[in-house]
Description:
The complex is a heterodimer. Chain A is an alpha+beta fold. Chain A has 2 domains: 3-126, Nonspecific Lipid-transfer Protein, Chain A, CATH 3.30.1050.10; 160-260, SCP2 sterol-binding domain (Nonspecific Lipid-transfer Protein, Chain A, 2-Layer Sandwich). Chain A has helices at residues 8-32, 34-40, 85-92, 108-120, 122-126, 130-135, 137-158, 163-167, 215-222, 228-233, 243-260, and strands spanning 45-51, 56-62, 65-70, 78-82, 100-103, 172-178, 181-191, 194-198, 208-212, 237-241. In chain A, helix 1 runs antiparallel to helix 7 (137-158). Chain B is 39% helix and 14% strand. Pyridoxal-5'-phosphate binds at residues 66, 121-123, 126, 149-152, 198, 233, 235-236, 260 of chain B.
Amino acid sequence: MTSDELTPEEQKVLAHVKSGSAFQLLQMLAEEDPVVQEEIRNKSFILGLSVAGGMKRSVRISDSRITPLDGSVKGAGVIFRFPVYNELNNLLSGKKTKMLPILRSLAAGKIIAGFKTLTSRIPVYINAEPDFLDKNFRAVTRMLICAALRGIKEVAENDSYTAARVAGIPDGIIALQVENDAGLEARIEKSGSSFTVTTIADGRIPNAVLTFKDADTAHKLFTGKINAVVALGTSDVRIRGRIPMIQGLFPILDRLSYYMAIE
Amino acid sequence: MAEEYKFDNSVELFKRAVEVIPGGIYGSKAPGFVIPGSYPYYFRKGKGCRLQDADGNEYIDFLCGYGSQILGYGHDEVDDAAERAMRDGDLLNGPQASMVELAETLTGQIDGMDWAVFAKNGTDTTSLAVSVARVHTGKKKIIMARGAYHGAANWCSTNVFPELTDREDVLSFTYNDTEELSRLFSENKGEIAAIILTPYHHPAFDRQIMPADGFYSTVKILSEAEGALFIMDDIRCNFRLSPSGSHSFFGVEPDLVAMGKSIANGQPISVLMGKQTVKKTAGSFFITGTFWMSGMPFSASLTTLRIMREVNLIDHLNRIGSMLKDELESLADEAGLKAEISGAPAIPFLTFTDDPDLYINQIFCSEMTKRGIYLHPHHNWFISYAHKDEDIEQTLETAKEVFKITASML
Ligand SMILES: Cc1ncc(COP(=O)(O)O)c(C=O)c1O
């Protein structure tokens, strides 16, 4: 199915999922990828995305870091402005798109070129070739986990299909951990109707914990090579704490995979 | 120390199941409701309060087939009665005399109830109760307590999908919060068909809560003023509080009472009972099912009810349940843990103070289960007539060790 076949509301959710995950991955690439690290060294700019009457979000590149900013394009040197959500979807899936680049900086050309270089690194990790994957397994896995959490956040905040179920999830923090690898942890926190993804453990005690037996299990799960229900039954994935919080993520994950399958 | 149990057969069966059964095992029996890795998923047989899983591990069981096995698994007298009905053909073209006898027995035994309609599962009867209340009052809205379980039907379950509108007219309030309840009644004045409650609150993943002083009198005042029916969902507490119905234990007078689970010691039958005033409406419904007239559960139920009366069941359950509660709480204390058993003695559930997310619970219950004492970490437990002093003593012996292990793991 292509995004043209979706309802306008679904196109909006898809745009949130795709752009949210992409920005999340850029943030992590700045931590993991030498090419991106080299590209952003000594650079400072903001690139924004905006949809007429709707979403505004941007990424800030500064101090060798990439930071996604929700709800704002303030200070952006370049803003890609789309008449409708689906044009943003077209851009994010590499199709022809209608958009208006608003250039506010003299260095706009360089910003656009730099942004293209950065985003070109995403598939290197997410659709990694076997050799690359071998060498960067932990980084890829970490990125997959965080991108999935970001996708969950976007679906949970924007998708009306799952809204009633999302409302039933208790507030609190869910931590995703890998056994015997304390560094490989990401979290999603629900507070009312908003969700926050953090890519590290922050010292607070989570209300629920989902633990992968090893990084390989996490990788296989997020690349669709094993079934979550089986992994739970075999305890390759373990759950502890406030279980309804984790159970609450499953319908959102199902919905996320619906969006992820859209071309 | 005994060796910890392994669950390889359960896991293998589950893997096969996932291929051909959506989700492998569904609902509250799914692996995710216990702690995968520490619990069996499949079982072979049970006798008394002892249960054997698909790997041959044996347990003293405190779940009793989710409450239904009130006299114990494989009760000879009950099974003989069911077997006789089975040998007589079991499912005939219409009901057998046992159906009438059971209705007569129940209306004689359950306080304030004048008629009985039999079905198979608890959900059948809570759903029927809700429909009957709607038609009887000419109104649509139903009030229930947040977190209460009334079955797997879409009007009350977690099956919340935009395509299903069954939940639209169902309102929830926090159990015991009479202010919120009054507000719901006043904001929906003239629209409320019924309030449905369990005798006391036993949500999954939480401690159990008894009705606060004045709660039931507020329910009565509000529902009478609204002309709404009061439905008692007695499916879980059934016969563990009082032989006359749990409403009788709390001194309340519902219009409809739904029962199931323990009524035939594990044979599939449930019943909706009601007051004379609602009988005509109930009679106007078309309700049945191919298997609803099966004779086995009726015979099993008549025998179960008789035995429960003869053995003075409630006294036994209360004594055994209180022994378990008192001793578990003090053993936890000795290990430096603060544990509380909530609920009625026959329907206990253990939680630890300052453990709202149940991390300690999960450790304790898993370690007990892996040592042969089946304790559910997220759902209330049940005592049966088959639990004897020596079973509790063995349970406590294991608990003494496991509380220490639990404390050392924190
Ligand atoms: C209070 C209560 N109501 C209704 C039901 C539903 O009964 P059944 O599972 O037989 O449909 C249950 C089952 O656990 C229950 O505990």
